[in-house]
Amino acid sequence: MEKGEKRERVLEYLRQGILSGKWTGTVLPAEVALARQFGYSRETVRKAYAKLVDEGFLERKKHRGTVLCGSYQEKHVIGAVMRCSDHFYEDIFRELKNLALASGYLIQAVDTHGYEVPRLRKPIRRQISGIIHGPVTNLILDGSECHILPLFQGLLRKQPVFFDYMDREKPNCLTGVMIDYYAVGRMGAEYLLKKGCRKPLLFVGPLIFKYRYWPEKFAIHKDKLLLDGFADVLRAAGMDPLHHFILPDRNWKEIDRQLFEIFSSPECRPDGIFACQDVKLVRLLKIAGECGYSPKCKLGVLNTPWSRGEAGIKFSTIEIPPEKCAAALMQQVLLPLEQRENIYIQPRLIERKTK
Q1: pLDDT, average across residues 97-122
Q2: pTM over 0.85
Q3: pLDDT, tens only, 289-321
Q4: Residue 250 CA neighbour count, 13 Å, CB half
Q5: Neighbours of 315 (CB within 10 A)
Q6: 122 with 350: CB under 8 angstroms?
Q7: Which residues, other chains included, contact 24 with Cβ-Cβ below 8 Å and sequence gap of 6+?
Q8: Which of 47, 82, 130, 265 has the fewest CB atoms within 10 Å distance of its CB?
Q9: Which residue, among 183, 95, 185, has the nearest Cα to 140 in the 3D structure?
Q10: pLDDT-based confidence at 164, cuts 50/70/90?
């Protein structure tokens, strides 16, 4: 059994005990006793308690240790099946948790970041099962991740509010909080043109090959929306968008080879690069650097440590405001299903001086 799965077993036991009123007042099982009961290490039990402190079920008191949160009985539980530890999404989750606590709710979160890693699948599946069969009254679901998650139909029965776009069709009765990727594309093109770029390059991949030949699906994909916004601005400026974007398939080795050819040829080099994510822009800039080239304008999306310069590279970025995403999610998830409407989050430009 994986360590993560052991912690989830302890978490499930503690959550059910707290929510059922098994432990009255502030009395909780001692870590040593609970570790002995499960046959696990004390460290595993300690991590489970730390998780419940983070979720708001428990609190740490000076001279008393970890105790039940005094007002937990009055709180309802919102489930959040989403990326909680991946830069931009971590910022959103932090804001969301604070808003929930201020509104009298607890957040029971399942961090889906890394689900593609085999050793993490069992613990995540177990946590999702806990959401479906537990006390969750409202649910937020990461739209771009949900198609790979187990027990998806069970999550749908919770009538979730989706966050961000979906790689598969969203049920008609459900709503979401979406990023306005068309506005992101327009903002990126307008920024590069304003900076005097005449050979701007948009990188919007890699994308699963079949989506480009699935018109109904591709029409609502975030990369297509971003590309449409970028292309409309270029057309208005008298430029042919066809010469100014890369929409590759999922083969990074071939993508890197093509980028190397572009950056190593002076006649092909773009004077400005706009990538759909900061992490992808960093990859492009490293390849450009290997070719001895640095474009005068660099623009990413999401506002991560790379764009802030905390990872050794600094550039301007189009930020999706985390506080607005969290506020919209809270607004929607607390409404009855029939009163919910789609909310589109508008981007904002964060311009930074680079060397």
Answers
A1: 84
A2: no
A3: 999 999 999 999 988 888 888 878 889 999 999
A4: 6
A5: 24
A6: no
A7: none
A8: 265
A9: 95
A10: confident
State which amino acid sits at residue 251: N
Which residues lie closer than 8 Å to 232 by C-beta, 6 or more apart? 185, 186, 189
Cα(162)–Cα(179) distance, integer angstroms: 11
- 29 burial class (0-12, 13-18, 19+ CB within 10 angstroms)? middle
Q: Which residues contact 329 (CB under 8 A, 6 or more apart)?
A: 92, 96, 140, 161, 163, 177
In the numeric block, which tokens belong to residue 202?
Answer: 């948009």
pLDDT at residue 70, rounded to an integer = 58
Distance CA 114, CA 118 (A): 9
Rounded CA separation 318/203 (Å)? 14
Higher pLDDT, 9 or 82: 82
> Which stretches does DSSP call E strand in 199-347?
200-203, 245-246, 272-275, 297-301, 316-319, 343-345
pLDDT at 287 over 90: yes
Residue linked to tokens 């609970």: 34
From the list 294, 284, 219, the residue with the least C-alpha distance to 248 is: 284
What length does the chain have? 355
Give the pairing of strands 65-68 and 58-61: antiparallel
30 and 23 Cβ atoms separated by less than 8 Å: no
Q: Which two tokens stand for residue 6?
A: 């052991």
Percentage of the residues of the chain whose pLDDT score is greater than 90 = 37
Confidence of residue 107 (pLDDT cuts 50, 70, 90): confident
Q: Is 304 exposed, middle or buried (0-12, 13-18, 19+ CB in 10 A)?
A: buried
